Amino acid sequence: MQQRQHIVQRYEDELLRLRSLMEQMGGLVEHQLSLILASLAGNDTRTALEAAQQDSAVDALEHEIEALAIRLLALRGPMAVDLREIIACIPMASALERMGDYASSIARRLNQMDQPIPHTARTALHEMGRLVLDHLRRVMNALERKDAREAHAIWQADQLVDQYGNAMTGDCLKQMTHHPQTIRLHISLLFIIRNLERIGDHTTNMAERIVFMVTGTTLPSARPHAHDDGLSPP
Amino acid sequence: MFSCLLLALTGWGMAWRLSRRISKPESPPPAARTRPVPHHPPQTHDPHQLAETIPGMALVLGAMGQVLACNRAAQTRHGDSLHALLRHPNARNSLHTALNAPLMPESDIPTACSTTISLDVPIQRTIRLSMRRLPGTVGRDSLVLTLLDDRSAIQAADRIRADFVAHASHELRTPLASLSGFIDLLRDGGDQTDPASRSLYLDIMHQQATRMQRLIDRLLYLSQLELKGHQRPREQLDIGELFATVLGEVMPRFRDSSRQLDMTHEDDLTVLADEDELVQVLLNLMENAIRYGTQPDRPLHVRLNARRSGLDDDLAAGDTGVLLSVADNGPGIAAHHLPRLTERFYRITDAPISDNTDTGQGTGLGLAIVRQILDRHGGRLRFVSTPGEGTTCLIWLPAAPPA
């Protein structure tokens, strides 16, 4: 009897630990994005470098989460919602790892800019970054609360990020046509915009996993995309 | 004597077991490996009671960082960003330190540690966290008392000052250059400048000075909004009253037969809001409708509506609240501008601006102000536009909890 309680206790501890690691990983990627925002707001490249340095910690967490999830599956034979949660953690950790990668890539690019980013472009990047960070925050909260409805809302809201990206891409192209001497700068900006969009895409991947984890159902594979028609609200 | 000791021992054991059960309500009684440490009599820690006893914002965390209790003050002020705070790397490091903190000299109380965390979303906040492991709790059963201290106001003041200087220096440069250009022209020309040119120069100078004045006013207003950005308004506001105030303000602009205004709203709509700020929101939106919606060939028609949000309103995302809309029948806005409209100083360069003497050129801050106000109210904002048919601005505000 006591031994069984002991096993249950160990299992619950490990599940708690898995959740705690997911939270930690999410917090780290949020922090990376925050540093990028700070760097954009203050036009300070050192802060950006700090974001790039978090990369290895994010990678290490992904491995730890994967190992723990496999261990739980192999040794504890979890069922139903627990099983779905543990399975979902593996792709969610990998989505977070990708986001961390994109964040580092943005940070390094900001650090290597040889021309200062114009004031308006910096404001726009900051706004788009805030939108992406806000979605990540909401998805992490939805994970913590096991809130499928909120996850679904974020899944749909990502097209705002796409719209923002499209708007800024159009602007960059216009600038490049009119001021060819700024092509280098704008190519860098395009990469940053693209990376932010990709972080948004991975946020929706996480949202899909959360819906699956809570309800056991999967969302349709086609997500509403901004370029379907830029006018209709999501 | 012997039975007395036995009784004392069992009594103590039961008290211990009881205290464990209280401190961790959901877990089964501890396995055999946990034993009370001698000389450290176990203490009863009911996390909920403990958190609620503390005047101020307090939480009790478990060894894995899970929230075991959160008092009402913390819930009300930071409920929505509590987990974002706790998963921040600084908070995780602090928790780790607190869990392994040595005891203070000549005492059995662990040392405390603290850290400061800044969050960017949903609104900018700076919070100081202080943590201490509760005496007598060890290992996986550790409890960490966490106090929150909101430093947003101090932090905001610094940031806003920097923002203000950056924006002001950037945006005032153009009108200032124009102003000094004409001053130079007048000075160099001396008495030779003919009266017609002279009066033209002075007119332009006056325009630019007015523009600078308006810009500074709006920047200051925006800074004031930012300063209180982290406080949610708590006054009940009736939408009917709000509309009446707005109507009083804009009526003179709609006397003209070329402009028409419709206002409709459902009864008994209430939100928690700052009335002056919401009036400002609607005025800014209506000013935009007049400035960018007026076309020479057809009368402008502005519609203001308020209703309860339903399940099929995307902006509400299933939450209960009030949906406000300001719609015009103007030329519309191209889709690629819509997401960026609320950026500070974002201007639609390819739009024909109607030549209205009573509006003049915009400052590029009107919608930034709208967004700032709505952020503070926990509201959401979206623009929908069909070129050739008009633009609608949708605003969702959370419903006021029943009084």
From TrEMBL, chain B:
First-level EC class: transferase
Recorded catalytic activity of this chain's protein: ATP + protein L-histidine = ADP + protein N-phospho-L-histidine
Residue span, Histidine kinase domain: 167-401
InterPro entries, per the entry: BphY/WalK/GraS-like (IPR050351), HATPase_C_sf (IPR036890), HATPase_dom (IPR003594), His_kinase_dom (IPR005467), HisK_dim/P_dom (IPR003661), HisK_dim/P_sf (IPR036097), Sig_transdc_His_kin-like_C (IPR004358)
UniProt KW keywords: Kinase, Phosphoprotein, Transferase, Two-component regulatory system
Keyword Calcium carried by entry: no
Pfam families according to UniProt: HATPase_c, HisKA
Enzyme Commission number(s) of this protein: 2.7.13.3
SMART domains in UniProt: HATPase_c, HisKA
Top-rank taxon, per record: Bacteria
One Gene Ontology molecular-function label: kinase activity
Region (Disordered): 22-49
Protein name: histidine kinase
Species: Bombella pluederhausensis
